[in-house]
Amino acid sequence: MRRHKLTTRVWHWLNAIALVVLFMSGLNISNAHRHLYWGDYGFDPGDAWLSVIRFPAWATIPQRYDLAEARDWHNLSAWVFALALLLWWVASLANRHFRSDIAVERREWSPKAWIGVIKAYVTRSKEESDSYNALQKIAYAVVLGVLLPLMIFTGLSISPGFEPAAPWLVDLLGGRQSARSLHFVSAWAIFGFFVIHIAMVLVSGPVRQIGAMITGGKRGETNP
Amino acid sequence: MTDIKRRSLLAGMAALPVAACSEIANTGPAGDLFDAVEDWHRAAHRTLAGRQALAREYAPEDRSPDIRGNGSLTVDSDYYRSQFAQGFSDWRLEVRGLVENPLTLSLDDLRELPQRTQVTRHDCVEGWSAIAEWTGPQLSGLLDAARLREEARFIVFRCADTLNGRAYYESVDMVDAYHPQTIVAHQLNGEPIPEKNGAPLRMRIERQLGYKHAKYLTAIEAVASFDDIHGGKGGYWEDVGDYQWYAGI
């Protein structure tokens, strides 16, 4: 029995590539107008709730300011990301990956359980286990169930060509400029997850962990 | 303008699948892929929402305090300045190209046509948005009056302004040309359009980004392809910076 199903592994790497391209091309797009607003409209930096830095060229795709090419990369990766996430959800509900590995159980919704997990990490007394602990489940559930879908819905809402298909969605998000702000905030929240995710892999044996996400690994190894 | 005859919208639409494939000069495998992706987005938008689905219209009180001027903010010519001073009394809009009945219209001619007023949101490719009320005749009425020929696939908008020494222009396919909210605007918030926003005439293409909304409009031209027009990609920014011809995303 492998730790990671083939569908999970294929999705993981496809999604990783798409997210990196989306994030870095997104930083390039952000450089075109570095001000974020709430509501339907916003164009005056004086009205912005947040004005962000100009992201350096090394952090962007392409590696120079080019809004047109950044949009090409962004719009291409968006298809990969959105369709892959949709398929992941269909597969994970069908093969019970979500229910058995990720869905947070009621007893795991307690600070006591979370403190226990953190203590185990700090004292390195974490037992080898096939299943995710409470904090891992919560993190994965929030990313897969909230942040990644939010990227898709806020991204669609920014598109004037798509908007007539679901004007209610733009309303739900508080208007186009609110959707744009949420798109930005959610992207950085996912980046935060990414940093922690990488750190966890590094401290728990990166070669074995990354290998397992490629070959499938064996049951009985600790999950990152 | 007495010679208005209804022209079949369907005849123009029938040519669309061909048009979608030939619209853009390709530049290598990455360029091909990006172009294909652009087509998928456009097809998805029009499938999910319908081709004639309206962009959101707002109440007058939802308007933003201003609509920012971007790109060209004026036309640098003595003719434009003198026309601006006298309310564009000699300004003419031509409807030409692949039409049976070319038109030359004054602002008064345009004002006498049935008008559409819409409070819509202007979304710039840079990311900002502004909301304003626009008034003008529908492009579909002008095209019907000029009677498009069978081979017409795109509508090109010719402008008086130049950016970095090159003439500004833009274009749309027949779906957006015949979209009910595609108007030749001569009023912004009930007043003549200000200089920075494209006086005296600008296009409104409400389901696409701002660079498609050609300002300082001088001619509307029906064409079969973009090959012989400037850089051949259907618009100023498309030629100069490889921007997406379909700007619905």
Description:
The complex is a heterodimer of chains A (224) and B (249). Chain A is mainly α and 224 residues long. Chain A is 62% helix and 2% strand. Chain A contains eight helices and two strands. In chain A, helix 1 (6-30) runs antiparallel to helix 2 (67-94) and helix 5 runs antiparallel to helix 7 (176-203). Chain B is an alpha+beta fold and 249 residues long. Helices cover 27% and strands 24% of the residues of chain B. Chain B has eight helices and eleven strands. Chain B has helices at residues 9-14, 16-22, 28-49, 78-85, 107-112, 139-146, 174-177, 236-241; strands at residues 93-97, 103-105, 116-123, 129-136, 154-163, 166-173, 183-185, 187-188, 191-192, 202-204, 217-223. Mean pLDDT of chain B is 91; it is low at 1-26. Chains A and B meet through helix 2 and helix 7 of A and helix 3 and strand 4 of B.
Average pLDDT metric of chain A? 92
Structural class of chain B: alpha+beta
Largest sheet of chain A: 2 strands, antiparallel
Q: What is the largest interface, and how many residues per chain? A: A-B, 34 and 46 residues
Largest sheet of chain B: 5 strands, mixed
Distance between the termini of chain A: 18 Å
Cα shape of chain A: globular
Number of helices of chain B: 8
Enumerate the strands of the largest sheet of chain A in spatial order, edge to edge or round the barrel. 1-2
Rg of chain B from C-alpha positions?
A: 17 Å
Amount of beta strand of chain B: 15-25%
Write out key terms for the chains shown:
heterodimer; A: 224 residues; mainly alpha; two-stranded antiparallel ribbon; globular; B: 249 residues; alpha+beta; four-stranded antiparallel sheet; 8 helices; disordered N terminus
Produce a short descriptive summary.
The complex is a heterodimer of chains A (224) and B (249). Chain A has 224 residues and is an all-alpha fold. Helices cover 62% and strands 2% of the residues of chain A.
